[in-house]
Design a protein that fits this description.
Elements: H1 2-7, E1 10-15, H2 22-34, E2 40-46, H3 52-57, E3 63-65, H4 75-86, E4 90-94, H5 96-107, E5 113-117, E6 131-134, H6 137-145, E7 153-155, H7 171-177, E8 186-190, H8 199-212, E9 217-221, H9 227-237, E10 243-245, H10 252-258, E11 261-263, H11 273-280, E12 285-288, E13 303-306, H12 311-322, H13 325-342, H14 345-360
Parallel strand pairs: 1-2, 1-4, 2-3, 4-5, 5-6, 6-7, 8-9, 8-11, 9-10, 11-12, 12-13
Helix pairs in contact: 4-5, 7-10, 8-9, 8-12, 11-13
Length: 361
């Protein structure tokens, strides 16, 4: 029976992180929500990873082993041993190095492997794997264009849970921390400071917005290689006091609640979990008509989509929502309703279990 196969499954998750980022947080949440379900989940993490302690703090019961790096000749044997010790029927890999070695282990007669693909990546890391699970249809199309059989790829959009975004402070308290009044229009951006996230376009759009709405502010949460460039550009444009580079914060829910609009003009976001996090906080979203964003943001209903690399249209969208608070609030409410209906953990785990079942079968 199919249900008997699922109930007897043990899945070993293998991940090779360099930092605590999206894939690592996703795995932490997956293991949390799958606990007590019909499938047993175990986890092996590259030893020596800077993310080990943070993953433990996130509640992951893990086994460290030296499986990282693309030239690690011992990785295959260590994965094989971990799978035997766990009694794993399948290995589920996360990130490229883990997927690379899982594919080779499968070629050498090891258990079948499933590769989670969290972004637009080189197809070579997954060639030896039985099946791939992508975070969006956009990433699936990208893999198909690189030669993957569509029957070997399943697109399952990432889920969220209301408990992922728990408020610890009021909107007023956060604004007071930053010296901002309740009525100040604020645009928030939550992503590392990089070119692909659209920060160069955002700062140009911000200058246009601030010319028409000088009391507004832009809060950018994240660190990255563009920080010095953005600081210099903000000073040059005369908006350094209102285009604020706040850095990385753990209290994302509190920060999200304090802004009015969440704008992330990423050129081609694979999925965009932050768009769902904004929706959970009832914040309207501005994103680009590219990558996985259109699979989340419903144009005119839960947010606005603009062409990538188009500061004027980005500025127009921001002004539309900041200038019409009632419309922005309505979009935020619809976004939360849509999020809780479409992107749930029970739905995700059911679909993932079907993939595991098909691979074992």
């Amino acid at each position: 029976m199919a249900s008997d196969r699922v109930a007897s499954l043990c899945v070993l998750h293998a991940i090779t992180p360099s930092r605590m980022a999206g894939a690592e947080m996703f795995l932490a949440r997956l293991l949390k929500h799958a606990k007590g379900g019909p499938i047993e989940h175990r986890c092996i993490v590259n030893s020596g990873s800077p993310a080990l302690e943070e993953m433990r703090a996130a509640g992951i019961d893990l086994e460290p082993a030296g499986i990282g790096g693309k030239v690690n000749v011992m990785a295959i044997a260590r994965l094989a041993k971990a799978a035997r010790d766990a009694g794993a029927s399948i290995i589920d890999s996360h990130l490229s190095s883990a997927s690379w070695w899982c594919g080779w282990l499968e070629r050498f007669g090891g258990p079948p492997t499933v590769g989670h693909v969290h972004g637009f990546t080189s197809a070579r890391w997954h060639r030896g794997q039985s099946h791939l699970v992508t975070c969006s249809e956009s990433v699936k199309r990208d893999l198909m264009e690189k030669g993957f059989d569509p029957h070997r790829v399943s697109a399952i959009p990432l889920p969220v849970d209301p408990t992922d975004m728990v408020f610890t402070r009021s909107r007023a308290e956060v604004r007071k921390e930053f010296g901002v009044e309740e009525g100040t229009p604020i645009v928030g951006t939550f992503a590392h400071l990089s070119v692909k996230k659209g920060y160069r376009e955002l700062i140009v759009a911000a200058e246009q917005v601030l010319r028409e709405m000088p009391t507004a502010q832009f809060w950018c949460f994240g660190n990255g290689i563009l920080r010095e460039e953005l600081e210099a550009e903000a000073a040059k444009l005369g908006i350094a006091d209102r285009f604020r580079l706040i850095g990385f914060r753990r209290d994302v829910a509190d920060m999200m609640r304090a802004v009015d609009v969440m704008a992330l003009p990423s050129h081609r976001e694979p999925f965009g979990l932050v768009y769902l996090e904004a929706a959970l906080c009832e914040r309207p979203v501005i994103a680009c008509q590219a990558g996985g964003a259109p699979e989340i943001v419903e144009q005119g209903e839960t947010g606005l989509l603009v062409p990538p690399k188009s500061p004027p249209e980005l500025a127009t969208a921001i002004l539309q929502l900041l200038g019409d608070p009632s419309r922005a609030e309505q979009m935020g409410r619809r976004g939360r309703e849509s999020c809780l209906d479409r992107f749930t953990w029970p739905k995700y785990l059911q679909q993932l279990g079907q993939v595991y079942e098909s691979v074992v079968g």
